[in-house]
Amino acid sequence: MPADATGASAQHAGGSPSPDAPVEADDDVAIRSATLADEEAVLALIGADEITRGRVPGTWPTDGQRAGFRRIVGADDHDLVVADRDGTVVGVVQLSFLPEFARDGERAQLETMHVASSEQRRGVGRALIEHAIRRARERGCGLVQLTSGTFRPDAHRFYAAMGFEPTHVGFKLAL
Q1: Is residue 121 part of a domain?
Q2: Cystine design at 61: which of 65, 97, 152, 168 (Cβ 3.0–4.6 Å)?
Q3: Per the domain annotation, does 71 fall within a domain?
Q4: What is the CATH number of the domain that holds 91?
């Protein structure tokens, strides 16, 4: 079953372990910036999530998704971070740095967090988030923010356990 940031299935079926249970990442998972060579693996991982895939009509991945991947990998204000186990991409999160004037400096935005179902409850999501927070601190960001679908309560508990607080209600307008 597809997985989200918690490592729980995207369907959040009953009986899955609590996202608050302690987990530790395996030593053989490397957290690194994605390269162009990771394109197929990252897009396949994201496409394995039924919810995400359901948002995109047509053949997966689209030319637009491929172009977006390449723009993000090559951009100074973004870092596409992958969890790599023995040469296989098993997790991903997009880290974007946003300038702001209401606060001092930049904020970091986490997007597109996915963990392979085979890596559930193995600390991959936690390792990705911890890496992203470290990178945001190194860059001088004063805040790390993320959004999570209202239909993903396990992810919400996971993010809370990682220190994130629910502070806003988000709105979207499809164009």
Answers
A1: yes
A2: 65
A3: yes
A4: 3.40.630.30
How sure is the predictor about 24, in pLDDT bands with cuts at 50, 70 and 90? very low
- Total structural domains within the chain: 1
Distances (CA, A) of 90 to 21, 86, 128, 130, 147: 20, 10, 11, 16, 21
Check residue 15 and give its pLDDT. 33
Task: Assess contact for 129 and 5: CB atoms under 8 A.
Answer: yes
168 in any annotated domain: no
- Domain hosting 80: range is 29-161
The mean of the pLDDT values for the chain is 84
User: Using 50, 70 and 90 to split pLDDT, how confident is the model at 55?
Assistant: confident
Instruction: Give 127-131's long-range contacts (Cβ < 8 A, gap of 24+).
Output: 127/25, 127/29, 127/31, 127/83, 127/91, 128/5, 128/31, 128/81, 128/83, 128/91, 128/92, 128/93, 129/5, 129/93, 129/159, 129/162, 130/162, 131/31, 131/81
Helices (H), the chain: 39-47, 50-54, 63-73, 124-139, 153-161
